Amino acid sequence: MNRRMNGLAAVMVAMGLAVPISADAGAPGKGADDRGHGSVQAQVGKPAPEFTLKSVDGKEFKLSDFKGKIVVLEWTNHECPVVNRCHGAHVMSETMAKFKGKPVEWVAIDSSSFCADKVESIKTWTAQQKITYPYLLDAAGKVGHLFGAKTTPHMFVIDKDGVLAYSGAIDNNPYGKEDNVTNYVEQTIESLLNGSTVVTKTTKSYGCSVKYKE
Fold first, then answer.
1. Is 158 a domain residue?
2. How far apart are the first and last CA of the chain?
3. Omega into 153 within 30° of 0, i.e. cis?
4. Quick check: 107 and 71 in contact, CB under 8 A?
5. What is the CATH number of the domain that holds 143?
6. Which residue of 12, 32, 48, 117 is most buried, as measured by CB atoms within 10 A?
7. pLDDT at 194 (0 to 100)
8. pLDDT at 192 over 50
9. What is the pLDDT of residues 120-138, one digit of tens each?
10. For residue 1, is it within any domain?
11. Phi, psi of 203 (to 5 degrees)
12. For the segment 53-62, what is each residue's pLDDT rounded down to a tens digit?
């Protein structure tokens, strides 16, 4: 299996395509992250760390602003091919649409070191993708490291009480070729709305690495 995946990765590199990487979403809480930027505070089953960020429109958002609602955090990068594939396939928008009218908020966070310098191109991209939810800028990477975000996309779901309920991939379809797709974010939201136990609390996220400031 490893030999097969290595061959696939080599072909993708030769074609100039991004190779999705996996990150162990069960790792948050171990202490310093893999880049040595301090302690990861977000842990599934524990209160999500508070943060304040500004959007591409200059509006300030606090996690606590969404108290009493389920919050989905989507780590993103508008230049990431995997993010573009997911949005091009309407994975995020179709998941959101299933919970229209429900107490669910979706928020994108960009921890790329260059995101603050590309506000106009981000605005153009969000308009093209018809993204209506907040797109927050975290150029310093502080919030990304706080949550232990490793890939774009990397998803986190927070329950109405502010407790982190899920961390990992949006689904089990990193290459967009699975016939039987399991949407982990959708499952988590449904469980939280129904008051049932979230069965899958962590998975391995996939995508491009978060382009943190060195």
1. yes
2. 33
3. yes
4. yes
5. 3.40.30.10
6. 48
7. 97
8. yes
9. 999 999 999 999 999 999 9
10. no
11. -140, 175
12. 999 999 999 9
Residues 6+ apart with CB under 8 A from 118: 78
Contact 53, 138 (CB under 8 A): yes
What is the spatial distance between Cα 67 and Cα 83, in angstroms, rounded to a whole number? Answer: 27
* 71: Cβ contacts below 8 Å, ≥ 6 apart: 48, 63, 104, 105, 106, 107, 157, 158
CA atoms within 13 A on the CB side of 60: 4
Work out the number of other CB atoms within 10 angstroms of the CB of residue 161: 12
5 located within any domain: no
The residues near 62 (Cβ < 8 Å, ≥ 6 apart) are 50, 51, 52
Beta strands in 63-185 (DSSP E): 70-75, 104-110, 135-137, 151-152, 154-158, 164-168
φ, ψ of residue 61 in degrees (nearest 5): -125, 135
Q: One-letter amino acid identity for 28?
A: P
Query: Considering its fold, how many domains does the chain have in total?
Result: 1
Q: Does any domain span residue 123?
A: yes
* Domain ranges, residue 186: 20-209
